[in-house]
From TrEMBL:
This is Fe2OG dioxygenase domain-containing protein. PROSITE patterns: FE2OG_OXY. InterPro entries: BesD/HalB-like, Oxoglu/Fe-dep_dioxygenase_dom. It comes from marine metagenome. Transmembrane segments: none annotated.
Length: 293
């Protein structure tokens, strides 16, 4: 794998973003306050918010270059059929139960361990002003680095003909940055707040899987956009990439308390590898809810 330091190491994190429009490290700036209000309003409305053109050309080029360099090492799971929980089926439940409905998932991932500490990708993830800004947008007292060494900052690779089926996220919220859009297809669709921490809302999930689009929303993202998404409770997918180039999406994951990582089964399935910490975690799971995933 290629983990060498590129020209992107010369760019500071501040220099990667459209700082004049988005002065996220200037706490008293009026534009920053307006951004916070916008994101909070959109998240409360339907669990999704977007800051358009968050990255400038230099920043986007640096992140895209690293993603492309590592995309040849992306892991594509041999298990191409998944349910919405990205887990196993339940033979004790009916065939039309969500756990037993399996769909096509053909996308892959560039994992966090493929990016070195000097990369723009990792430096941006650990940049304090960004993490603080994200926490304020999400109205969280503090955000912690997601302690999963495989999946805390990854690139979702969706090649032509590939897709990511309907699913829920392990984290309550996810931060994504589109680095390269598909020429056609590759659209982000979601159903806001379909389940709650107390209920799987199974009937609603079944309706969506049977083709009901009454609550489905479609989001048009462009390269350089920053997206906030509450994917723990909102069912979502990426439709088939019908163009000729890869769709590349940078994903940053954070947690509200330290020590959070993905389950051993899910990490192995999605990313093709686990670390020692995943084995320890299986014996001491640290989840705030009792949902299936």
């Amino acid at each position: 794998m290629n983990k060498g330091i590129s020209m992107s190491a010369e760019l500071s994190c501040r220099e990667m973003i459209n700082h004049d429009e988005y002065p996220i490290d200037e706490l008293e700036n009026k534009k920053r306050r307006q951004m916070l209000e916008k994101v909070r309003r959109e998240l409360k409305q339907d669990g999704c918010a977007v800051i358009n053109n968050f990255f400038n050309n230099a920043g986007l080029d640096a992140l895209l270059k690293e993603a492309k360099e590592q995309s040849e090492y992306a892991y594509f799971s041999p298990r191409k059929k998944c349910n919405v929980y990205l887990g196993e089926g339940d033979p004790q439940m009916p065939e039309d139960y969500p756990q037993n409905i399996f769909m096509e998932r053909t996308n892959g991932f560039v994992t966090a361990d493929l990016f070195n500490e000097e990369s723009a990708t990792r430096r941006l993830y650990f940049w304090g002003p960004l993490k603080s800004f994200l926490a304020e947008c999400l109205e969280k007292t503090e955000l912690f680095i997601y302690d999963d060494p495989i999946s805390n900052v990854i690139v979702n690779v969706c090649k032509p003909g590939q897709q990511f089926c309907w699913h829920y996220d392990t984290n309550e919220f996810t931060i994504t940055m589109l680095l390269q859009a598909a020429e056609s297809g590759g659209e982000f669709e979601y159903i806001p707040n379909l389940r709650t921490p107390e209920s799987e809302c199974t009937e609603g999930v079944i309706k969506v899987l049977q083709g009901d689009r009454n609550r489905v929303k479609q989001l048009e993202l462009k390269a350089g956009d920053l997206q906030f998404f509450l994917g723990r409770f909102s069912l979502h997918r990426v439709t088939e990439n019908t163009g000729n180039i890869d769709r590349l999406l940078l994903i940053q994951s954070f947690a509200e308390k330290p020590g959070m990582i993905g389950s051993m089964y899910r990490v192995q399935d999605l990313y093709g590898k686990i670390s020692k910490i995943h084995k320890v975690y299986e014996h001491d799971k640290n989840r705030p809810d009792k949902l299936l995933d």
